[in-house]
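fold-stage: in
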Amino acid sequence: MEKERRLEARAKEWESQGKNPDFLLRGKVLTGAEAYLEEYSDLGLLDGIAQEFIEVSQKYCIRLEKAEKERQERELKATRKANRTLFASVVAVSAFAIFAVVEWIDAERQKTIAIRQNKIIRLRENVAQATNMLSSKPLEGLIRAIQVTGESQSLLGQVIPQVQFSLYEAISVPINRNRLGSIERNWHRDWVYSVAFSPDGKTIVSGGWDGTIRLWGISGKAIAVPLIGYQDSVNSVAFSREGHTTIHSVAFSPDSKTIVSGSWDGTIRLWDSSGNPIAPPLRGHQDEVRSVAFSSDGKTIVSGSDDGTIRLWDTSGKAIAPPMRGHQEWVLSVAFSPDGKTIVSGSGDGTIRLWDTSGNSIAPPMRGHQGRILSVAFSPDGKTIVSGSEDHTIRLWDSSGNSITPPMIGHQDSIFSVAFSPDGKTIVSSSWDGTIRLWDTSGKAIAPPMRGHQEWVSSVAFSPDGKTVVSGSEDRTIRLWDTSGNPIAPPMKGHQGWVLSVAFSPDGKTIVSGSWDGTIRLWDTSGNPIAPPLIEHWNGVSSVAFSPDGKTIVSGSWDKTIRLWDTWLGSLEVGCNRLIDHLFLVDPETTLAGNSEMIEVAKGAGETCQKLAWKPAQKAHFLINQGRTVADKGDFKGAMAKFQQARELSPGIEVPSEAEGRLWAALALVKKGENLAIEGKAKEAITNYQQAQKFDSKLKISADSWKTLCWYGSLHGYAAKVMPTFRTLNCHMD
């Protein structure tokens, strides 16, 4: 009986609208009604107007199909006629010349395509190498994945899906980020027996056979002098030790540093971009929090709740205005105006309200909708508000609360989502009727309904350039459309449940989707998956969003968690940061000596990190690491040049002093002298010792170094030269 009642309700609505064709059945809904009529018409379960409604819908659909066929035939005839006319004109001018130009253009186009394809083939080969390395040499695999990411961006101006996929795989494989103390050379001198993390995850403690305990930061740097006092091995170390429900809504602050989430438990929570809570839960609402949003300056948060109120909070978690009361039912949607001075709210009571940031109502309630308001949004200039309702209509209002156009009628079911294009000239709406529609700001439809989804459309969004619309549906697919209403890629298939939320990245090149199946998926604008499904949630993903810098995705789920994910840019930064202190990247010529191919790959990876991933402070950190290794080779001037570059990039960074640079270079020359002495090159060894003391006049040649020179010098017949040197060098005999 439910199907009969729905058909009769639609039929009565059609009759009440003067039998307007816009309210007739179409597509899947019409097919279902026809099947019902064929099977059950003899039972007389439908009233007369419902049967007429279905029959008129059938006839109207046939007329539309016939008209479309006739239009196509007319266009075909016109095209043929135009082609004949053009052909005659071309022959009259010069058939040969035109043919030659066309051939040249086609040849150039084919040449460009061939070059691009060759580049893609080369990239895919490098991707295959990176992937193959991950199981046996994950560190080298990560380095190659980073290098090929930079290569793709350089060759094609984009990172192709296969390369992005490789990068995601590479950072998901555990590797040693670096050898703790590798840059400072202050690691344990014997076996390490025990390690432990501090409770906040920021510090590591290690105990070794060498009798010391050492503290490290998570970047691998020592953060204190070794704890010395044990006369034997240290076998065990340890630190002393001293939630949300289902998530409805999540949002990033404009600077990408803070995330806000609203939950069924009535609380709002704030998190930093590493996923750490940064304030106590924001309490005040007496029921579920349906919607949250940041102001444009990132200083204020607005929340809407099933308790019928809207509340304002600062980013320390304090309420900054009395609750905004007025709605008689749930507050389902809230949004700030672009200037951050006005808040709009939509409610289950069928009204829209405007408020200032002191919590005062600034206009009478906007009335007109006959059902719950499911979605509201401001235009980019803040002068217009759009609302979508269960009454199947979209309405436009000015910022004083006045209706400025007739209702936009066309959808056959509830409006789930509405949004303005970035230029404010177009509105997109999605509905339970399975269609997406485009409207201008005078309320007119500007394209045929976008049909293709087989079930209701839960989420729509414009690309940042306003030229593309993405939609997610209960039919488990995501679709892309141009602003003329045409599909521009095959349906994106992969989710095993309803698609609940979709969003574009800030650069418009990537789409994220969240689904009932608990996964998040990434797609390019050709509809191709560009990463494995992000699988951590164990229940539906109700909300997804990109950070403004495009490096991070936040997801909110019915499993009561919020999770952060890296995009390819974020993944690149993660991979590069893992290697920022690693000698493979810092000094590939030394650590990868003998493997010329891998040295070039590591150099390319380092360049990629500096161009695409690192901010100035990270680049400066890397240059300081490189300066240390240069100094460790005895090149004082080269080291100081690196340190100076680091200082210019990040003026506030702590850079090693000239005295430290001289000491490191001097110690390196002493070590080099020892090796030369062992090889029997006493003259060269002495020269290195002398150069070392020029760098640092206070440097004392240790007894061990002196004994090495003396022993091997004598062994190779240079005793007469070695002994006078002892008197001139500042040697330390103990």
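fold-stage: in (second)
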Amino acid sequence: MSDQDDIIEAPEDAAEESGPDNFFIDILTGNKESASAKKLLVQKVLRQLIESYGFDRNDLEVNYNPQIPRQGRKRIDVAIFRPDAEHTNDNLQRIIVCKNQKKRDKLRSIAEADADLRELKELLELIPDATLGMWTNGQEEFLFQVERTRFEVRAKPLGVWPVPGERTTDLDRTGGVIQVSAEAEDLEDAMLRCRQYLNRNLGLDHKDSFKQLAVLVLAKIHDETLPTGERRFWIRGDEPFTEAGQQAIAQRINESIAAAKAWQPNLLTRGWDLTLEPHETARVVMELARYSLSETQPRYRTGAFRAVARSVMDGREGRYPTPLNVAEMAVEMLDPQPGERIMDCSSGTGTFLAMTAAHIFKKKLAAMGTTPEEATNEQIRQAQNETAAWAASNALGCDIDPFLAVASRMNLLFTTGNPGRVYRIDARTFPDGDLDGIEAARPALPLGSMDVVLLNPWFSSQDKITDASILSAYDLGHAWERDDEGGFRNTGNLSSGGVPPEVLFLERALQWVKPGTGRVGILLPDGLLGNPGDEHVRWWILRNCQIEASVDFPVEPFISTVKEFGLTPAMCSLLILRRRSHEDLIQAGHPEYKVFMALVDRAGMDRKGNPLFQRAPDGEELVFSDEVIERVREGGEVHVRRVIRRTRRIDDELPLVSEKFSQFKGDSEVAI
């Protein structure tokens, strides 16, 4: 198959889709437009320019007609003009060409993409004042700088773009151009390009790809803790495309990795080393060097990390990543405080711990009197530093899988700047065990010491735990029978048929929190909460806990999470529990109390993972006018600007559930 066969030729209106719901709201004009793949790609680029780079929306134009004599009809997909200048060719500084193409298995080099890049290069040659260009198909990005001499015009490839207000000469300075805070989609795309290059172009498997990326991320995070003059994780304009430049990048990065490993000596384990060639290192660094992670929202950072980390879980033993909006809702309901110790005893890729860190970050900003949207870059950096300090002492976790234990630490590091304390142990046998993290974990994770435990344990009705040495340590590892008072009693005999792992994790999570005040948020299969054969488990929960909330989820977010593993998701619910004190347990009975219950119908996506938008009762999608914050770079400074954007809203009831639970805790009543 030729390279051309891999391209969808999409004339301007060929991909136009009909129907009342096939529309988008133009980010520049606020107008409702019919959707096509090309138009949506242009909108994605506009979001990147406005929300990551900080361009003024008034300096951007879509489908600009340069009206070049004797050149026929030309259209520039996105044109960027000098600040506050008339939109003419004389003021046109940057040209962006967007090409709708189907996804490619491998990322191309500039030489391989030459046929596609000719349109951009021709436009740059024809418009003398345009000095920078970008070509993108939504998956690949190619950046260029125009060099004009008396005899030729040459488009020189770049690894980074200057931000508004920087000059092209800044591309070659030591330290590189200004690194920008990333918006969520932009950072996730960059991380996915890194993974695709490592996985598809270089042929590394998912875990080896993740190892290479993790080492580089560690270097990047450490580099941002250093004074500007001491940083090494940057690139000059065309360094990734010359042999000397690639060698220079590799040398800086290797020095940065050595310093980062000395900074966090317990983060990575043996075998987590950079093994890439200089040109390969330069290709990945090119994607990461443009961003300032310390000025990027933690919620965006953990979302991007999740996009590349989910592939390292294989779905065996019922293990797969927790949907982000589900984890976020659980954290908001439990509302961990900055002084509390938080743990995930089945941490996987660290989703719950990272979302807790994002929650703490918002509290740090609130203490400064600001929000993530309105905070200055300095306030964001300060809150990030305070959140990192919190994670160093109060973000704890464990996993039996050595790879996932490192992945959890990496998620916390990427989200907060600190890896927390995540140990490789078997939570079921703790404080016993012989895995390599047990000696350090015993003093760090004593039972009864946590304020909050959050977990999504293994679900399995097939692979039950039958090991007598494990079962004997648990009430629920024994057989139970009804007593004469309508309850249940422990027979003293171990369960002969074994016990599902989620049941033992439930008991272990409660053992880990403080008696009387400790809270547990746990995802459990609905069968455990409704099957007649599990009634003794429910009785045990009521005896040992106060149930604060029960939230029943729709299946859609879990379908999207497990489909790549070829699994069928279990219907599940979130329980919020408070462990009873020893004094409570010796009482014959407990006073009645109210329990918050919610049945969620919509969680932001359909069964295929497509977003769901809010609709009116007649079924028409709603459009809202929302005030948003845009950070505009002017004269080397960042200014906060409030603008009204017309937009659709995701139909996700999970934030509403956490809001109503907060109201319920205040007065035990909920207004519907």
